[in-house]
Amino acid sequence: MSEILVLVEQVDGEVKKVTLELLTLARRLGTPAAVWAGPGYTPEAKAKLAEYGAETIYVAGSEEITGYVVAPKAEMLAQLVGEKSPAAVLVAATAEGKEVAGRLAVKTDSGVITDAVGLGDGFVAEQSIFGGGVNVQAKVSRGIPIVAVRPNSTAPEAAAGAGAEEEVSVSLSDAAKSARVVERVKQEKGARPELTEAAIVVSGGRGVGSAENFSVIEGLADALGAAVGASRAATDAGWYPHQFQVGQTGKTVSPQLYIAAGISGAIQHRAGMQTAKTIVAINKDPEAPIFELADYGVVGDLHQVVPQLTEEVDKRK
Ligand code: FAD
């Protein structure tokens, strides 16, 4: 079976869950091969990638790969595609992943599918388009399929692969070195899961009312082991940091459960969360558009409903 290259997403050498999901998808369609970009490759990372089915791990460990912005990863992948002729390339549909996918598609004269929420036989992808308003079946008809898959689209399944390592040396063009990374600021890794990878997300909107009141949202999130999100109205008001904004101009999330409290359900917010498996809306306006989308709706004041919900969840632990 042909190889399917999976670009590894990692933070400080720790393989992110989305990579395990991509390996799981790759195994269903061919032979998964992980591609490690940049320094930080460890025996633990190798073990993790092999545990989820990587038969080969291509390690492009040069500092240069991550020393410049995005372009080196696309160039390294293009080189690997030229050498290995894989059946497909899978990346995570993160901001960087999508840029890598686009650049790689140009370099390899291939088609690209972004925001895939499923991938089946013949690399037919289920793709979320128009800001998440419509799902279509899409297939690449030119070159090799390059597919950017949203985190949480597939449950990762362990299945041992050989994990055979192969070093990749890359000679980067000057063009790939045109934007250099001058500083990395480490984001404090709180106790909560990362927003785009969380299985449960609890988001608050303008209805929360103030920065202090976000403790109500955080309380429920912590009871559920969830990430906290926010609407743009809440982030623009300075009630919650912008990096937690969900929506068209924020993060795209695809959790198992999304709880929207005090959020009206504007199209730009929906764009970032409507592929969630189950949506619960808490809003005091029964006419709020979020209820059209919600699987479960509670009409009520979130300041009463959310603390009660938190208490109930805590009782059942
Ligand atoms: P509102 O629309 O004001 O809704 C607040 C809701 O809270 C209401 O439904 C109200 O009934 C309810 N409420 C009030 N008090 C309570 C209470 N005590 N208990 C329960 N419910 C209560 N928005 C995003 O979220 N993400 C984006 O990425 C984004 N990108 C955008 C990009 C562009 C180009 C544009 C033009 C807009 C974008 N927006 C985005 C903004 C979007 O259009 C909405 O303005 C925004 O989502 C509204 O946020 P909200 O639902 O919190 O506020």
TrEMBL record:
<feature type="domain" description="Electron transfer flavoprotein alpha/beta-subunit N-terminal">
    <location>
        <begin position="4"/>
        <end position="185"/>
    </location>
</feature>
<dbReference type="Pfam" id="PF00766">
    <property type="entry name" value="ETF_alpha"/>
</dbReference>
<protein>
    <submittedName>
        <fullName>Electron transfer flavoprotein subunit alpha/FixB family protein</fullName>
    </submittedName>
</protein>
<dbReference type="InterPro" id="IPR014731">
    <property type="entry name" value="ETF_asu_C"/>
</dbReference>
<dbReference type="InterPro" id="IPR018206">
    <property type="entry name" value="ETF_asu_C_CS"/>
</dbReference>
<keyword id="KW-0249">Electron transport</keyword>
<dbReference type="InterPro" id="IPR033947">
    <property type="entry name" value="ETF_alpha_N"/>
</dbReference>
<dbReference type="Pfam" id="PF01012">
    <property type="entry name" value="ETF"/>
</dbReference>
<dbReference type="InterPro" id="IPR014730">
    <property type="entry name" value="ETF_a/b_N"/>
</dbReference>
<keyword id="KW-0813">Transport</keyword>
<dbReference type="InterPro" id="IPR001308">
    <property type="entry name" value="ETF_a/FixB"/>
</dbReference>
